[in-house]
Amino acid sequence: FFLQIMELCGATRLGYFGRSQFYIALKLVAVAQSGLPLRVESLNTVKDLPLPRFVVSKNEQESRHTALYSSDADNPASYSGVIPPPPGRIQVKKGSVSHDAVQQRTSTDQQESTSPVVSPQQSPPTSPHTWRKHNRHPSGGNNDRPLAGPGPFWAPFSEAQPGPSTTSDPIWSGHSPPPHQENWVSFADTPPTSALLAMHPASVQDQTTVRTVASATTANEIRRQSSSYDDPWKITDEQRQYYVNQFKTIQPDLNGFIPGSAAKEFFTKSKLPILELSHIWELSDFDKDGALTLDEFCAAFHLVVARKNGYDLPEKLPESLMPKLIDLEDSAEAGEQTGEVGYASSPAEAPPSKSPSMPSLNQTWPELNQSSEQWETFSERSSSSQTLTQFDSNIAPADPDTAIVHPVPIRMTPSKIHMQEMELKRTGSDHANPTSPLLVKPPDLPEENKMSSSVKYTAGNTVTDGYSSSDSYTSDPEQIGSTITRQRSHYLSECVSLAGQQQTGVVAYPPAVPPRPQPSQGPGPHVHRPVDAEGLIAHTSTSPQQIPEQPNFADFSQFEAFAVSGVNKDDDDEIETHSESLQVEKSSDSASSLRVAKADGRVEDKAPANVPTSTGKGTTPLAPPPKPIRRRLKSEDELRPEAEEHTQKTGVIAAVLASQPSIPRSVGKDKKAIQASIRRNKETNTVLARLNSELQQQLKDVLEERISLEVQLEQLRPFSHL
Amino acid sequence: MAVCIAVIAKENYPLYIRSVPTESELKFHYTVHTSLDVVDEKISAMGKALVDQRDLYLGLLYPTEDYKVYGYVTNSKVKFVMVVDSSNTALRDNEIRSMFRKLHNSYTDIMCNPFYNPGDRIHSRAFDNMVTSMMMQVC
């Protein structure tokens, strides 16, 4: 009988028991069992071919193992060894359940289905069997197929068979595909050879799709098996696809996680002992987050399948099963799922929506640490109110590597941010209109505006020019202020150019700028406010803040308060009050009168340029508070603002800066911005030093004026006393 | 280089206990059991400050002539007790702390395993490996 079967299935021809041959052999066995004549055509003609009844007893199989071991000789011997067990199994047929299931299957299945039905059962034995064969043929000698190996496989197969058979019995009644899949999985899980795995996919396809014994396919698989011996734990594409599908049944989103509870239910269906499942989980949950990503799920499924086929679980996760290391931002993971066919019976494992990974201490600590570091960095780098950190769509880290990676916040360089903010605010609040005319108004400003790439140097130059011109204006605080204003405007413009942003005259200087110029803006600023306002509006922030010495610092604090409130109109009032206060501070009456006039003029100027000034005011108030923060900002603006110092300008600029909302900064530009800002800071320092000396001179002049005025007053007094 | 490491559950029953020199295992079991009283004492003592900044590391619980017992308690009242040999080069406190931290990490990994029911004995191989690495290498 068996020899006939062997001949029919062509095993002898091929010299080994390929899967197809095995299938055919088993079918023939079934045919023989059913009493039909053994003919090839009987395979195709018999519709209700009862499934060959295989012994499900473990003991018998184990005994067969030994028998197989002993019969480990040549192909014929092996074949005979192979053949006896199946028939033995058939004879020892046990488990009415399986029989019933078989009958059930046969009744429900067509001939095609019978073959698939048979093949699943065949496949488990086939897989380990063939695996063994291939394992023994590393040299490629297909003729020798010692069945020494099959021993362990028979044992797992026995385990697998009861498993699949029992589990599949109820399943099969309901779902024909799952059992096939299950069986496929059970034998497909023999990982030892990728070729074998390749076989599995083909068999899966056979079972799940075509449902026909693709002998050709199996032949190909067999060839593939014999040709390559890959990593035993490698997951083939078909397997992976299957796993992915299984993953989808639980978690529709491939990028999501399967929570532990859902995974537990799913894997429990595999009927593996909890201890082993626990070990599998430990191996596959790479990032220890209590949830399975696609990769982890595939690895776990693969391990389960392997275990079901009798392969001991590794102590460490095999490399091929390691979840891919993907950036946190890229949450997409390879669709690897250790599809557990056995559990596929109830795909209704709808996970309770995608649940974020449950971070374990291990994972969260490094992540939190890193994130905190990055956050700190951001806070340092960005002005308090002006940083918008944008994170890429970042799903909780699932990959081990990504667990350490942090979401990459996207930040823009401070200068750019400010400039953009300024621009936005300007445009939003009709600043653009006034700014442009403002820009046009100060004729001096445009002249000195050097929008060159080497802003810093040009800024320095302009500052120098401003200084030289201011020297000539020393006697005239206004002029000095205007000069400084121009310088500031130039600086601002240069800063703008440095930032490379084409903003409509609105220079968004980093918050650091406003603080510094603000204090420096002293008595002078008021006078120059009108002019400065225009320039300031265009350039905002930086210049006013660049005057550290200005006694207007106190006033700026007022502005700050206003800026915090973010009321433009208040800023205007502030500026006015500031001017008034400045006027009060000014000792010289003439100066004060001038200032008053200027203040009025400034107010008038501010009327049209309300928005800009308000913005400037806003920035100004903000200047002092963010000063320390801005100081850390290493942007061009920092350098620039220091170069120009006028309280007026600082006020306006500060207001403008205040208006700058937090802007996202790009991490990538940080380094460049840092270096640039360092240079700018240095330049600004020098400029500020010069400005300081200038202002000192100015102060001396003013004091001298005061003295002279007092002397005059005293001279007049005696007359009054009289 | 601990001689014995034990994980005690909240209800004071052992979840995991392992000693290196297996012959005197019973003695270490007894030591751990008695040290639990000290642990509870320390926990109750810290109860005043509540859980604000409660240090998980309890420090040296009980020194004897042969060995020292260190304790560590988690926020869920799971205690780790470690017995180290006194003859061993005096382990620095930091080393003990790091060992406890590793224990804690491994314990949380076990907790994350959905197949682990809290309160069961710990059978995790990974945990075993980690503990083995910390145990004293007794020739």
Q: State the name of the first-level CATH class of chain B.
A: Alpha Beta
- How much beta of chain B, percentage-wise? 15-25%
Low-confidence stretches of chain A: 45-50, 52-230, 326-403, 413-418, 428-477, 498-664
CA gyration radius of chain B, whole angstroms:
14 Å
- Domain tally of chain B: 1
Count of individual beta strands of chain B? 5
| Helix and strand pattern of chain B | EEHEEEHH
How are strands sequenced across the largest beta sheet of chain B? 2-1-5-4-3
Which class do the helix and strand fractions of chain A yield?
Answer: mainly alpha
CATH fold title of chain B: Beta-Lactamase
What oligomerization state is this entry in?
heterodimer
User: Which CATH class of one domain in chain A applies here?
Assistant: Mainly Alpha
Q: What about the largest sheet of chain B?
A: 5 strands, antiparallel
Strand order of the largest sheet of chain A: 1-2
Word description of this protein:
The complex is a heterodimer of chains A (722) and B (139). With 722 residues, chain A is an all-alpha fold. Among the domains of chain A are: 54 residues, no CATH class; 79 residues, Recoverin, domain 1 (Orthogonal Bundle). Chain A contains 36 helices and 4 strands. Chain A has a two-stranded antiparallel sheet with strand order 1-2. Chain A has a two-stranded antiparallel sheet with strand order 3-4. In chain A, helix 27 runs parallel beside helix 31 and helix 34 packs parallel to helix 36. The longest helix of chain A has 55 residues. The termini of chain A are far apart. Chain B is 37% helix and 24% strand. In chain B, helix 2 packs antiparallel against helix 3. In chain B, strand 1 and strand 2 form a beta hairpin. Chain B is an alpha+beta fold and 139 residues long. Chain B has a single domain, classed as Beta-Lactamase (2-Layer Sandwich). The two termini of chain B are 13 Å apart. A 5-stranded antiparallel β-sheet of chain B has the order 2-1-5-4-3, sandwiched between helices. The interface between A and B is medium-sized, with 23 and 16 residues. Chain A: It comes from Nothocercus nigrocapillus. Chain A: This is REPS1 protein.
